[in-house]
């Protein structure tokens, strides 16, 4: 197995070690080096901050303080033993918040995968601070609420896990949905523009459905993050490298 190549400034050994923790075998399978890899995008963009977390600015519109730690592909344990626990693409620890980033690139525009909630979720009292997430979970489980492009079930699982870990650290929790809007697939075929509009509408619906709960939900566009970084002298070259390598995102 050949280790992936990372952008300049990304500590390759640390990034590779983090990626090996994730399920899905993306590196060995070759998916990581594929032209549509979301994992490669987030690992290269945020891997640059693994050994310099203080240089990561609060993401645009996200209620987070200056990070003291940044890590990739972190398993966030839910409040039970055994079973599967969600992996977050990026985790940033600040003095006041635990911020988890779920990164998406082409995934919202591919055929949706069926995602279910295990019975464990029904055995816990998540409290009034997660009442909106719980209500939406029930609606998704009974089919009264559906999403075509947004993996809402995955986001809810991440929210529960973030809340669990944030409580242990006596911090607030923020779930960032970092998404792209690619105009074309890697083969040059255009992405259906109506899919972009539907995706945006579903993001807005999800945000409204869980507004006010203890885990703040912050949708952010990749293009806005790179624009922010490009205006910061210390990050401008890195932002350019990400944009040049991964194209319009």
Describe the structure.
A five-stranded mixed β-sheet has the order 1-2-3-4-5, sandwiched between helices. The chain has one domain. By secondary structure, it is of the alpha/beta class. The radius of gyration is 18 Å and the shape is globular. Helix 4 packs antiparallel against helix 5 and helix 7 packs across helix 8. The two termini are 28 Å apart.
Q: Which helices and strands occur, and which strands form pairs?
A:
Blueprint: H1 12-19, H2 26-29, H3 38-47, E1 69-75, E2 87-93, E3 97-104, H4 131-141, H5 152-168, E4 172-179, H6 193-210, E5 215-221, H7 222-230, H8 233-246
Parallel strand pairs: 3-4, 4-5
Antiparallel strand pairs: 1-2, 2-3
Helix pairs in contact: 4-5, 7-8
Jot down its keywords:
15% strand; 5 strands; single chain; 5-stranded mixed β-sheet; alpha/beta; 249 residues; globular
Strand line-up in the sheet with most strands: 1-2-3-4-5
Question: If helices are DSSP runs of H or I spanning 4 or more residues, what is the number of helices?
Answer: 8
User: Which outline best applies?
Assistant: globular
**Largest β-sheet summary:** 5 strands, mixed
Residue runs with pLDDT of under 50 for 5 or more positions = none
What's the number of extended β-strand segments? 5
Order of helices and strands: HHHEEEHHEHEHH
What is the total domain count? 1
Structural class: alpha/beta
N-end to C-end Cα span: 28 Å
What's the Cα radius of gyration?
18 Å
Q: Fraction of residues in helices?
A: 25-40%
What is the overall pLDDT average?
Answer: 94
């Amino acid at each position: 197995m050949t280790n992936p190549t990372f952008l300049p400034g990304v500590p390759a050994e640390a990034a590779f070690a983090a990626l090996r923790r994730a399920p899905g075998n993306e590196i060995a399978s070759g998916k990581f080096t594929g032209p549509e890899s979301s994992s490669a995008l987030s690992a290269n963009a945020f891997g640059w901050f693994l050994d310099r977390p203080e240089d990561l600015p609060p993401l645009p519109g996200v209620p987070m303080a200056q990070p003291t730690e940044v890590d990739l592909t972190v398993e966030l344990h839910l409040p039970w033993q055994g079973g599967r626990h969600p992996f977050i693409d990026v985790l940033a620890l600040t003095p006041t918040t635990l911020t988890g980033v779920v990164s998406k690139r082409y995934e919202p525009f591919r055929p949706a995968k069926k995602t279910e909630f295990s019975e464990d979720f029904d055995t816990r009292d998540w409290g009034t601070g997660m009442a909106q997430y719980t209500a939406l979970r029930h609606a998704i489980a009974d089919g009264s609420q559906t999403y075509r492009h947004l993996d809402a079930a995955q986001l809810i699982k991440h929210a529960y896990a973030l809340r669990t870990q944030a409580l242990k650290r006596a911090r607030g929790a923020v779930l960032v949905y970092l998404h792209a809007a690619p105009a074309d697939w890697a083969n040059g075929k255009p992405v259906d523009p109506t899919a972009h509009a539907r995706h945006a509408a579903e993001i807005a619906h999800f945000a409204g459905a869980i507004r006010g709960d203890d885990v703040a939900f912050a949708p952010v566009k990749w293009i806005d993050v790179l624009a922010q970084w490009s205006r910061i002298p210390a990050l401008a070259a890195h932002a350019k490298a990400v944009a040049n390598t991964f194209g319009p995102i």
